[in-house]
């Protein structure tokens, strides 16, 4: 029986590897991003494994050495939200202040901002499936937490209409980084707060990519519908150089060590909750195996410095 099980696992892994190479999700416009997230939402695999937060977790300032004392994956994801709130100063906003969550996923962060900080949150995503799921997961006692389908590069909101802008791991899907920055700052009121966290590539000034790194980078872009990654310095320049910034100072930091365990934890969740995954059916199991190589490449890229996890904060001048 054990031999048969092992053979089945190996065959599934081989099939997943073939799918990984043949079924890439190359960026082909905003529709390709929406389609990828619709699929990830509708098969419920990510939600089953990762909970309500489709972003990395924060494992403490000790980074990799802190791992043994760190919370579990889902706790680390919630901890990330609170850490970014404190670091960016969103906890200084008065109750009832309005926040735009750009790239809200299925609404995990938006619900924390509304529930724990008393903020009025509008979460947006380009994926109709994500928005439908976000609404379904939001309890009736959080009427000040709303969701809408919207393109981050064309926000259907008035100029200077929100008190804070929050955006986590959204920029990699944006083909025009400057327009993304412009839209975030356009809707932000004078005195409003900005909180952005993102996957960033190593800056060109810090060294050209090796042949191996170029291959890895191509996979990271093509497997998950990314047109390009910004570096931490380049995204900082996009934000401070925006015509809507009006002399705004944008501080940045590198949280790569604090978030790095997330990649391996995202795989281990499948082993921690095998029954939940199997209940989704063989297609979900195969899909989980298909995503594993890209997750491992992400871990390698962040561990070696090819990728960095950047956070950005600022207060728009009055």
Could you tell me the mean pLDDT?
A: 90
Q: Which structural class should the secondary elements be placed in?
A: alpha/beta
Q: Biggest sheet: strands side by side, in what order?
A: 3-2-1-4-5-7-6
Task: Write down the overall geometry.
Answer: globular
**Poorly predicted tracts of residues:** 5-16, 64-69
CATH architectural category:
3-Layer(aba) Sandwich
Q: How far from one another are the termini?
A: 70 Å
Q: What is the oligomeric state here? A: single chain
Largest sheet: 7 strands, mixed
CATH superfamily: Vaccinia Virus protein VP39
**CATH C-level label:** Alpha Beta
The helix-strand sequence is: HHHHEHEHEEHEHHEHHHHE
Number of strands: 7
Helix share, percent = 40-55%
- Number of H/I helices: 13
Radius of gyration: 19 Å
% residues in beta strands = 15-25%
Overview of the molecule:
- With 318 residues, this protein is an alpha/beta fold.
- It is built from 13 helices and 7 strands.
- It has helices at residues 2-22, 30-42, 45-50, 73-88, 108-117, 128-137, 177-186, 211-223, 232-240, 256-259, 261-272, 274-279, 282-304, and strands at 98-102, 120-125, 145-149, 162-168, 188-201, 250-254, 307-315.
- It has a 7-stranded mixed β-sheet, with helices on both faces.
- The longest helix has 23 residues, at 282-304.
- The N and C termini lie far apart (70 Å).
Layout: helices, strands, pairs:
Elements: H1 2-22, H2 30-42, H3 45-50, H4 73-88, E1 98-102, H5 108-117, E2 120-125, H6 128-137, E3 145-149, E4 162-168, H7 177-186, E5 188-201, H8 211-223, H9 232-240, E6 250-254, H10 256-259, H11 261-272, H12 274-279, H13 282-304, E7 307-315
Parallel strand pairs: 1-2, 1-4, 2-3, 4-5
Antiparallel strand pairs: 5-7, 6-7
Helix pairs in contact: 1-13, 2-6, 4-5, 8-13, 11-13
